[in-house]
Structures are given as structure tokens and as C-alpha cells.
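Hi F.,

I've been meaning to write this up properly since the lab meeting, where we talked about keeping a consistent format for the predictions we share between groups. The idea is simple: the sequence comes first, exactly as it goes in, then the C-alpha cells exactly as they come out, then a line or two of notes. No screenshots and no reformatting. I'm using this chain as the first example so we have something concrete to point to.
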Amino acid sequence: MTNAHLKTIEQRLLWLSHWMIHNANHIRPKADGIKVGGHQASSASMVSIMTALYFSALRPEDRVAVKPHASPVFHAMQYLMGNQTRERMENFRGFGGVQSYPSRTKDVDDVDFSTGSVGLGVGITALASLVQDFIAAKDWGDITPGRMVALVGDAEMDEGNIYEVLQEGWKNDLRNTWWIIDYNRQSLDGIVREGLFTRIEKIFDAFGWDVVKVKFGTLQRAAFEEPGGSKLRDWIDACPNAEYAALTYMGGEVWRKRLMDDLGDQGDVTALLERRSDDELADLMENLGGNCVHTMAETFAAIDHDRPTCFLAYTIKGWGTPIAGHKDNHGGLMTKAQMAAWQVDMGVPEGQEWEPFAAVPDAPALRGFLDKVPFFARGTRRHADAKLPVPAIEFATDREISTQAAFGKILDELAKGRTDLAARIMTTSPDVTGTTGLGAFVNRRKLFARKPESDAFIEHRIPSTAKWNFAPEGQHLELGIAEMNLFLLLGAAGLSHSLWGKRLIPIGTVYDPFVHRGLDALNYACYQDARFLIAGTPSGVTLAPEGGAHQSIGTPLTGMAQDGLASFEPAFADELAVIMEWAFDYVQRDGEGDPDERTWLRDETGGSVYLRLTTKPLEQPGKRVDNDFRQGAIDGAYWLRKPGPNCAIVIAYQGAIADEAIAAAGLIGEHRRDVAVLAVTSADRLNAGWTAAQRERTRGNPKALSHVESLLGALPSHCTLVTVIDGHPATLSWLGSVAGHKTVPHGVEHFGQTGSIDDLARHFQIDRTAIARSVSELTVGDRSPGAALNSLRIGA
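Output, unedited:
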């Protein structure tokens, strides 16, 4: 009876998913006349796999990343189970409706992992399994481990990040991971090349995965047992992908002719074919393993171990629909006429298209079965965990220190303590742990591995700054040089409170220019509302000896543009301490409500945090106790030197260039009165608050004023802003728009090169002399040759 129910569910999901797409494209009014789309064929090829998986194999602790183009099947399934509304289904791909691709943050029906950018949903499942092991090994990690499952489109296997994940999994003894490949052999632009997956199988085998090939369904396997069946099997094995797809589209009559032409002169094969009508023959030839719900259920049930497993499920794209097998069906849709005929074939009465149990012979029995499906038995599987108290983070200011070094010292102090927050920190880095400030923390808190492994250098008493002891209680997960893996891991760990009910504080480090190498995965993690800290360090051309390939330029703009990520670039250690204390609380927030009227930032919702740090040591400002500095560092800026009533020049800087900006203010002050210095710690938060306040004013609240407007609004109109950053000048040049002040931007717009910090600062005109010269030549005031020469001499 269970098998009968699975077949019924499969047909219900096939209909509901396709009707939802058809409604969006052919029935629902379209104001702009643009095709809505929805991937009917890609959904059809996955429907049997998903039915068997969700309704026979999964348990509540399992987590699934659904192939993006199978989103309609996922939502049809949730609709059938009462977890999705008809209103949202009818508004598929519309505003407020079911999303194009499964989304944790935009959909309402228990999405485990968002998908959309192909390959990333696949990769995150393996890294989530590592996070699960990390949690389970801790004395506070009482969880029931589940399988991390990816439903994979075969074209996703072209994505390079998948192979990076395979290697990382092998290094970390991956387990409890299933990747189920929908091998329909058709992609957007054509048919997959012959023999590709024999090579992919070898890759999986090399990295320690079990590979289960699911090629034939129950009808085919039964036919193979008949006289002549082995010859039919050989013919299927030898048939090219494109040919098989074309024959599928043309149907049973053409199947018969082709098979009779190729095999019909042999009596037993002819008899096998003649025992079946054209429709039955088409059903037989299209009964590949991945399109057979019973075969898939049996295959899943046979797995009795925790080794990583790849299922290669042969399917037909568009299976069970009039567009099955057509090479254009990826973006194609059934016509109205095709849908009308198919509705008759599916037995769905007119007017009952949206009814979950339409055409079900015994609806009460099916409801009874659905009520007992283990995966859905506990309802929505979103967990929560209490917020961790954040200890006070103080920093004893050294005379000179870089923000990267201060970052390392702050983490080291946390590692020394016994706070709950320190126990939940998980650090990670793509083979740059020791050069990005994590070394001291790792030495104290060890590296994570399920089995202990001692450091041979320690055993042999060989001096080394790194004490690399691996242990289950370890809190650092070391990665290879693959920034995509870094951000996928941070994404998985940053969802730990929701996926497992155990909160982690993930902290990653990466060389700042390589933030862009992992940018797709960073965006993906933020889209899921994962919570983590990422330190990009070292950054800018102040990483002078490394040259242009390692000197970041555009990352400050990335920090401003990336939703879900609060970006900071402090110059001083005390600023960093204040920001990190705030950040440890911010990543744990999940509130609702109105924006903070002091800044108009939606801080109560929380998010992730990006710290752009540097190895450039700066002389520190000494102990500061004023609240303006502490709050300003969090809000995005504060006055390091406050403006007077007739302020003519404001130098606004961000990050490591602070010393040059401060020195330039001294130079300019010899010739201009009232020079102010604005210390910007977050152009991102200044800009976000400014735009939010403007939106509030357009809604009729004239009192809405952002932090940056409060800072700059009182400046006289003749005042000139000179901005400077070791990064792209557009990061700060917008400041002049806040209150209509002339702005002279300094920054880095072109690739760097090797040299000293001073060499490159002069080359890119972000040094004190260049700043002073721009004030002398581009602003109203003393422009005498003596003034300009004095500036140049002092800066030489």
C-alpha cells in the first residue's frame, strides 16, 4: 500500500507543480507581458526522486538543498502537506508569492538551504555535515545527527566549487552526506556530452564516496528478465543521450519503429515489443531509474551506513509531460492546448486544478499515510537557541599596533577565558590561519577533528609558533586554499542555531583581495541570513611588498553593497574592540520592529559583520573614555578633531590611512584655520542610515535624521570635504552629497605593485603631502606658492 501511495503522491506533485507554473504564465494577468517561466521540464525530471526521498527516506533531522529548478515540486509538496497557501501558489514568481528558487528568508514553507546560484546548494550540504560533526563533538552539542542531502541538477556538476568541496570533505572525513544527481542529460543550451559521468564517477570514488547508479526502473528491470530483455538493455546502454531524448519526445509509435529497425529481426525481442501497446512501450522506455518512485525508494532504503554517497539517477527531462525529451524544454512551457490535453490524461476534473487531493481514488487513506510520514511529523523544523552573553572587550592600547594584530589579541583574550561565548566560537580560514591573526586562538583552543591527532613538532620538541593539536573539542576548522569553501562553511555554521538549535559564533579570516574570489558564496550565505564574522586582512596597498595581486581595492564597496553584512574598517585597536563587542551581539539578533531613530539603521534584525583590517601598525590615540567615540565607532563615524563654527576643511578618512590623514590635517592647519578630522569606521553604516532616513522623510517624517547628517549638517556651506581611503575613493566620495559640500576624494583606483608603504601611498596620492596639496590647489583659501611648497617640504 505504501508503494501505491508513493505513486499517487508523485502524480499529485507532478500536476500541482506544473499547474502552478501554467497558471503563472498563461492564466494570471501579466501587467508587463514578460514570460514568467518556472522550469516545468526540470521539475518533472525530479518529481519521482523527491517523492521517494521526502515521503519514504528522510527524517526530521535531515536537511535538504533542493535543485533550484525543482522549486515548484518542493512547494507543491508543502502545499499538499498543508504548509503552503494557495494564495502564494497562485502568485508563483509574483510579489509576495512562492519564490522562483527555494529561499529560507522569502518562502514560508520550511526551506532548509536556499538555492539559486547553481552548485552552492550542493556544496553547503557537505560543509553543513562538518559543522554538524563539530557541534556533536562538544559537551554542549547534544543533537541527533541527520543526513545533509543535495538534490543536484546534472549541469551543476560543471561548477568548480563542487570539486573544491569534494576535496575538503575527504580531508575532514566527511560523512552523513547524500548528493542525488538528476541525470537527465539536458541543460539550457543542449545535451550533456556522452561519457561525462564515467569520469565524474571516478572523481567521487577518488574522494572516498560511494557511487550508486540508478539507471533502470521496475518496468525496465522486469522486461530485461524476459526473453530478449538483455538485448534491449544493451541497446539502451548504447543509445546516445540526444537520440534517446528525441525518441522520447516522439513517443511510442516511433520508439517501436526504431527498436524494430535495430532489434526486430530477432524473434525474442520482437515478441517483447509486440506484447506492449505503443503507450506501454513508451512507458517502458521512459521508466529510467530516477523516474521510478519505487526504485528510488528501494535505493534510498538500502543505504545503511554514514559514508558520503552519490546517487546517479537517470531521468528524462520533462518526464510524464507532453514536452518530455525535447531539447528546448529547459526554458520551454506547455502550451494551453497541451495543458488541456494533459489535464485529461492526468484525470484532474475541470475546476479542481488547485485541489490537493483531486483525482485521488482514496483520499482518506492518503491523508492517513501523509499524517504518518516521519519527515513532516514534527512540523516546521526551524530551531532556535538562546543568545550568548557578550563579555566586555577591553584593549590595553599599545603604542603601535595594527588592527590585524589587535584582532588576534582580542581573540586570544577570549580564548583564555571561560565564557559561554568563547566556547561557541568556531574559527576557520583557507590556509591563512597564521597570517591573519588566528594563531593564538588556535593554539589555545585547538583544531577540530573527530579523532585526536597530536602535533609531531611538539612531540619532537621542535620550536614552532603554531601548536596544531587536533581534537574533538577543538574550535578551529582548517580549510584548504578555496575561498568558496570558506564562505560556504561560514554560511552553514552561521545557520547552526536554526538547523540544530545550537548557536555558533563563526569567525573566518581571509586575505582581503580574496573576498572577491569567494563573493558568490558570501552573497549566498548572506541571502540565507547566516550569521558570522569575516575578517579580510591584510588589505589595501598597505600590504605593500606583496604587489598588485594581493592588494585589495574594491572590497570596501563590496562591504557597502552586500545586503546582510555590516562592514567596518577601523583604524585603531580601541575602535576594533568596541566594534567586536557590538558585533558578537549583533550576529545573534533576530528582532523585528522599527529602525533606531538615532541612526535609522535596522540593527535589531542583526546580520553578519565584515572587518577590513590591516597589518600596518599605527600609533594609538591613547585611552579614550568619551561616549561619542564608542558610539560613533559603531554608528560609522565620529569627530577625531571636531569642527569649529567656521570650519573650512574636513578630512574624512577610513582605515589604515589614518596616520596620513591626521598628519595632513596638521600640515593644512599651518595655513588654514579650523581643520576638522572625521574618523570613519563604516562607510557602509553611514550610507545605509542616510538612505534610510531619506526614505523616512519621504513618508512624511521631517525629523528623520541619520548619523552622518548629524555629523555634517552643521558644517558651513563653504566647507570642503577631503576624503581618503586605502581602497576605492567612491567608498567615501558620496559624503559631499549629504549636505551639499564640495568633495575632493583620494583613494586607489588602479592595480598596485610592490614597494614600501610610503612608496605606494605617494604613488596613489593617499599620503599626507598629496592630501595637503589637494587642499592647497583645489579649495578656496591660501594658495600662495609658499603655502604649497611648505606642505610639500614637510611631507617629503
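Notes:
Confidence is low (pLDDT under 50) at residues 783-789, 791-796.
The radius of gyration is 31 Å.

If this format works for you, I'll send the rest the same way.

G.
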